[in-house]
Structure formats: structure tokens, C-alpha cells
Design a protein that fits this description.
With about 180 residues, the chain is an alpha+beta fold. The chain has 2 domains: about 70 residues, no CATH class; about 100 residues, PH-domain like. Helix content is about 45%, strand content about 20%. It is built from 4 helices and 7 strands. Helix 1 packs across helix 2 and helix 1 crosses helix 3. The termini are far apart. Keywords: Plasmid.
Length: about 180
């Protein structure tokens, strides 16, 4: 681990603990991981800086890196794949104008190799400051748009799950081509 990574991990832990404590202080009881994550989205950078003043010294890219670690600490990006070598991706149908939602019968599995596009999309965007926008991750497969995760991501922290999906799709396409060559 690099020194920067250690600082980001320590800061991410400090942020999650501070948010958890602030929720308890508001009388919310013991917050679940999802509660902490949702509160972080509501707080944005300025709210995080109020809870953890040391965050104010970070530049935009450093803050995004710390927030990516926070996402990992709070259960990851919510992207679910299946297979020893991932071949399938769990997705949720996208409805124009609606945020990613989940119910027992709403999800399905699609082949990673069928994905033609990976799209970070605005979910909640108020004002011009893109670092405060909440973004969702969509995929297009066979002409249909799906949410790849129910999670929303603050600003550029969406880049990590997008990169992960691109890597998964590339690996699945390469594996499919390799198998075809063997036939």
C-alpha cells in the first residue's frame, strides 16, 4: 500500500464513523450501512468537511479517491456478477425519469458480452457543480437500458464502478471470442 492509499483508507474510515455517529446523535438509532451511505450522498463534500475537517485539504481527485474507498467500506458498488469467470451481470430494468429501484421480481441476469454501452447517468443533479451530482450506472444490452446497480455515486466517484464494468465486459467478450476460436 502506498502512503496515499493508507491516508485515504484512514480518512474513509473516519468519514464513515463520523457519519454513523452523527446519525446516532440525530436520534436515528444504530444506522445500517445503507443509512450511512444515503446520508453521505445527502451531505456532499461540504457536509463531509464539516464532520471531518481534514477532508478540506484534499483536492477534487483525492476526495473522489477517498469516496471510492468509502463506497468499498460500505459494501462496495453493488455490481453483482455470476460465474467463476464472470459471464453474467445482475441488472434492474431502467424506467425513464426514475431512480434505480429493486423488488423481488425486478432483476434479471444478462450476459456481460451482450453489453454495448456503459453509461454514467445523472440521477439527482442540482446546480452546476458536478461534484455534488448523484449518478447512476446504466448499461445497454440488445437495445434495452438497465441499471447495473441500485447504488448512486457522488460526482466522479462513479468512475470506479464504470471502470469495473468496462473491465468485466472486456474480459467476457475476450473469453467468448477465445471460446469461439476453439470451436
Amino acid at each position: 500500500m502506498t502512503e496515499a492509499t493508507n491516508i485515504w483508507t484512514a480518512t474513509a474510515s473516519e468519514i464513515t464513523n463520523a457519519v454513523r455517529e452523527s446519525l446516532i446523535a440525530m436520534g436515528c438509532g444504530e444506522p445500517q450501512t445503507g443509512d450511512v451511505y444515503d446520508q453521505l450522498l445527502l451531505l456532499g463534500r461540504s457536509g463531509v468537511e464539516e464532520l471531518v475537517p481534514s477532508v478540506s485539504k484534499f483536492g477534487a481527485r483525492e476526495f473522489e479517491s477517498v469516496m471510492a474507498v468509502v463506497v468499498d467500506l460500505l459494501g462496495g458498488d453493488g455490481i453483482a456478477v455470476h460465474g467463476e469467470l464472470p459471464i453474467w451481470l445482475r441488472v434492474y430494468p431502467s424506467v425513464e425519469g426514475k431512480l434505480p429501484a429493486f423488488s423481488v421480481d425486478d432483476w434479471r441476469w444478462i450476459r456481460l458480452s451482450s453489453i454495448q454501452e456503459v453509461q454514467p447517468r445523472r440521477a439527482i443533479a442540482i446546480g452546476e457543480d458536478t461534484s455534488k451530482w448523484q449518478l447512476m450506472v446504466n448499461v445497454v444490452a440488445n437495445g434495452q437500458v438497465y441499471h447495473a446497480t441500485q447504488r448512486l455515486f457522488l460526482g466522479a466517484s462513479v468512475e470506479k464502478p464504470v471502470d469495473r464494468l468496462l473491465t468485466l465486459v472486456s474480459a467476457a467478450v475476450s473469453e467468448e471470442q477465445r471460446r469461439r476460436m476453439q470451436l
